[in-house]
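Summary for the steering committee. The consortium agreed at its last meeting that each partner would contribute one worked example illustrating the joint modelling workflow. Our contribution is presented below. We chose a case with several input lines so that the handling of multiple components could be demonstrated. No manual editing was applied between input and output; the record is shown as generated.
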Amino acid sequence: MARATRATQPELDAAVQALRDGEVVGFPTETVYGLGANAQHASALQKVFVLKGRPTSHPLIVHLDSARFLHRWARAVPPAAARLAERFWPGPLTLVLPRADNVLDLVTGGQDTVAIRVPSHPMALQLLTAFGGGIAAPSANRYGHVSPTRAEHVREEFGEGVRVVLDGGECKVGLESTIVACLHGEVRLLRPGHISLTQLRHAVGKVASGPGAEAPRVPGSAQSHYAPVTPLRLVAAGQMERLADELSRGGVRVGVLAQRPPLGSFRSVTWVNAGTRLDRYAHDLYANLRTLDKIGATCLLVQEIPADERWDAVRDRLTRAAAGTATDPGELP
Ligand code: TXA
Ligand code: MG
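What follows is the complete predicted structure of the assembly.
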């Protein structure tokens, strides 16, 4: 049975109380689960960094229940940003804007900008409204690890280290939000996500992409992000059977994430067919990587995904996951 997408009153009360006490709370969004803290509470924010093992120079996204109080967090909202907010909020879009004076350095990483998002998951909105303030939340995973798309993933990552984890079922999108900076008179895509460059351009016209000279730091774009523990390698579709066969004959246990069923059978290969539908593939990606990470494989082989723009966000995460694992599985015994 699908889980409820709204929290019960006692669940909500416990989560709000934890936030007021300066504790961190796991909560669902439509992209991935967040590890939330009161964005105006320095020691609560510290706990987020400690739990994640994340350097405090890496800024956090502030989640709000609507654009209503945006001006409390951003000292300027350029027209393009207002248009994007109007078009895509609530939803999987994060806007990077000039920060308001009173935003804590722990939120911004000491930068002059702040990242803000209004999520669309009903339970996230319920929590934000009941709390009545901004919730700073990175993805609820240890630094550099695979993001969580189910409540049990958050427990897997942190155990009892997090007092309350709200369970809102599986995240609909499954990949982190699209991040767009609206600074210095330009609009720039910093992290690809479910909302594509084409959709952004339809909404506001010109949109640059990638880290420009003036672009703020996006530490999530550190190469080694979103990585499973098992070494991961991207493999062309036509090479998959040969490589899987070769490795398993050599006694290596292999996990495969492909977009079709295998053509033959192999001795020690776990083959996951994630299919060719983008939304489904993205929805399942992190759960699939977590599953494959647990089979005791020496390496994971991921079929290269289509080259078109629609797959940019998936490609971005897979490329980083592959970069995050040091060993080249092609060189394993
Ligand atoms: O979908 C999401 O965005 C999820 C859910 C929980 O909302 N959150 C998320 O947070 O992915 P996190 O911390 O894992 O990634 C946030 C990214 C980081 O790469 C961070 O560097 C970037 O946002 N970021 C935060 N503040 C920024 C700023 N002021 N300028 C540029 N990048 C910023
Ligand atoms: Mg993250």
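The first strand starts at residue 25 and ends at 27. The chain has two domains: 9-209, 232-331.
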